[in-house]
Amino acid sequence: MIAVLQRVREARVDVGGTVVGQIGAGFLMLVCAEPTDTDAVAEKLIAKVLKLRVFSDDAGKMNRSLQDVAGGLLIVSQFTLAADTSGGNRPSFSGAAPAELGRHLYEHTLAIARRLHPVVASGQFGADMQVHLINDGPVTIPMRVNA
């Protein structure tokens, strides 16, 4: 799975003018499933995200995890993370999982996150979403997790 984590002061997702998910300080996680991804890959990704130490400790060093700071986690599906731009000016998205698998892995990712962390919000799979955020730092971490 491909993910981009953004440390945020706050973030929200709107669909059709309605807020469908929002958090205060924490992570906005954009996530894309790839064709060979499995439930185990999604579980590995969430475990890594929850323990990633990029929040400041008392000395101002990035030494605390999302769990340590009790931050929010807003998970948004974004198949465009699989874009291949090597062939021209129009990206190919064939590296993204087919919609049915993508939906399953997104929902599984949400379920695991909600089981392991108390503050989890989400976007809406397949919807035209407007994502609003205040990036903190800025801290933006690209990730790829494989089996």
Number of domains: 1
- What structural class results from the helix and strand content? alpha/beta
Low-confidence stretches: none
Total helices: the number is 3
User: Can you give the mean pLDDT?
Assistant: 97
Largest sheet: 6 strands, mixed
Which percent band covers the strand fraction? Answer: 35-45%
Secondary structure topology:
Elements: E1 2-15, E2 18-23, E3 26-32, H1 39-51, E4 55-56, E5 62-64, H2 66-69, E6 72-77, H3 99-116, E7 120-122, E8 129-144
Parallel strand pairs: 3-6, 6-7
Antiparallel strand pairs: 1-2, 1-3, 1-8, 4-5
Helix pairs in contact: 1-3
Describe what you observe in this structure:
With 147 residues, the chain is an alpha/beta fold. The protein has one domain (2-136): D-tyrosyl-tRNA(Tyr) deacylase (D-tyrosyl-trna(Tyr) Deacylase, Chain: A, 3-Layer(bba) Sandwich), CATH 3.50.80. Helix content is 24%, strand content 39%. Strands 1, 2, 3, 6, 7 and 8 form a 6-stranded mixed beta sheet that branches. Strands 4-5 form a two-stranded antiparallel sheet. Strand 1 (2-15) and strand 2 (18-23) form a beta hairpin. The longest helix has 18 residues, at 99-116. The protein is globular. The termini are close together. The mean pLDDT is 97.
